[in-house]
Design goal:
This protein is an alpha/beta fold. It is built from nine helices and seven strands, in the order H-H-H-E-H-E-H-E-E-H-E-H-H-H-E-E.
Length: 225
């Protein structure tokens, strides 16, 4: 069973902080701007640019949140492109549907992403932003398998999340901030070799873009035959 280190309790879904509700959900975008000292809007635009979205791409957005990312991705799509966003928070879904209401090629669905999904080889890209780290490893693998099934041959999984690093060896203010802001599941996440994990799950041809002094990474991986 997963543990953040050998001396602490086994990890469980109860350790997660990724499901945002209530006032935090209603003001999520404002909070993200504050936490990042106002840099988040420029950061996420850069990430979306680095995704190399093509006009006719079909994109599965797992844990789509307030819809902010989906609307940015939609700018790169033609009328033949499509985005399907999945989330479970009623406040997040309400925001996303309102924000994307004028974009007919975006749909938002209430769906747990670690449970079986109905999609089979329908998407060129699958994007998951700061969500994967909030699951226990077994559920992370379920999500990756869901993505593999949903992607077309050579489709691309794009994981925007914490980069891999050894927390105890980082600069102490970052170490303290990370432990205070994040859940034990995130500590477990950053210690894993995600290229090796994804390779075992049928992905390869990795590309990586790094941000925020290399603590954040967009990891792209192709579905292999």
């Amino acid at each position: 069973m997963d543990t953040p280190n050998g001396n602490q309790h086994p990890l469980s879904p109860d350790d997660s902080k990724v499901e945002v509700t209530g006032a935090e959900a209603r003001h999520y975008d404002v909070l993200m701007n504050l936490i990042t000292a106002g840099t988040y809007p420029l950061f996420i635009r850069r990430v979306v640019r680095d995704m190399a979205i093509q006009p006719e791409d079909r994109i599965l957005d797992l844990g789509s949140g307030s819809g902010r990312n989906a609307c940015l991705m939609a700018r790169y799509l033609s009328d033949r492109g499509r985005i399907v966003g999945l989330d479970i928070g009623k406040e997040m879904l309400a925001q996303a549907r309102w924000r994307c209401r004028h974009l007919r090629h975006i749909t938002m669905e209430k769906q747990r992403i670690e449970e079986a999904l109905p999609y089979r080889e329908e998407f060129e890209k699958a994007f998951i932003s700061f969500v994967l780290h909030g699951f226990v490893q077994e559920d992370r693998l379920h999500i990756v398998e869901n993505v593999r099934r949903a992607l077309k041959p050579s489709g691309q999984l794009l994981i925007l999340d914490w980069n891999e690093f050894e927390l105890e060896q980082t600069f102490w203010p970052i170490r303290i901030a990370f432990k205070r802001m994040e859940c034990p599941l995130a500590i477990d996440f950053v210690r894993r070799d995600w290229k090796a994990i994804l390779r075992e799950q049928g992905f390869g041809n990795f590309e990586a873009h790094r941000y925020y002094f290399d603590y954040v990474r967009l990891l792209a991986a192709r579905k292999m035959a």
